[in-house]
Amino acid sequence: MTIKIFVTGGTFDKEYNELTGELYFKDTHLSELLALGRCTLKVDITTLMMIDSLDMTEEHREIIAESCIKAKENRIIITHGTDTMVDTARALAEKIKDKTIVLTGAMIPYKFGSSDGLFNLGSALSFVQILPSGVY
């Protein structure tokens, strides 16, 4: 069984500019997190977008939904910003009934060193394997 992971951005993947104090996006840290957690599961990672969830629109949610529908995998994790995660989950639940989809995020960027992202990703990997079809 392969688990599909869709990256959408959020605090999970933000970088910190020490000169300006700004948070920004560069690349996803999912592969680093999976290696750090010694994950041996088969996963396929696809970056759909790298945005703050406060900037997420219905068009972005449609891209996420269509990607989930088209994915050959039935077990899907979506990394997402926490501010609008519930809105995206609600939109996905209306359209997708036959797959197990777990959204996860972080309150602290991975690059800060004390992120909750590793734990949250590990939890999502566990839950996506055992939960019935639905959006969580």
Describe this structure in words.
The protein has helices at 30-36, 58-70, 85-95, 117-130, and strands spanning 2-9, 14-16, 23-25, 42-51, 75-79, 100-104, 134-135. The chain has one domain: 3-Layer(aba) Sandwich (Rossmann fold), CATH 3.40.50.1170. The two termini are 19 Å apart. By secondary structure, it is an alpha/beta fold. It is globular and about 45 Å long. Strand 6, helix 4 and strand 7 (134-135) form a beta-alpha-beta unit. The strands form two sheets. It has a five-stranded parallel β-sheet with strand order 4-1-5-6-7. Strands 2-3 form a two-stranded antiparallel ribbon.
Brief overview:
It contains four helices and seven strands, in the order E-E-E-H-E-H-E-H-E-H-E. The protein has helices at 30-36, 58-70, 85-95, 117-130; strands at 2-9, 14-16, 23-25, 42-51, 75-79, 100-104, 134-135. Helix 2 crosses helix 3 (85-95).
Annotated CATH topology: Rossmann fold
Average pLDDT, rounded to a whole number, is 92
Broad CATH class: Alpha Beta
Q: How many domains in all?
A: 1
Please list the strands of the largest sheet in the order they lie side by side.
4-1-5-6-7
CATH architectural type? 3-Layer(aba) Sandwich
Shape: globular
Largest sheet: number of strands, sense, barrel closure: 5 strands, parallel
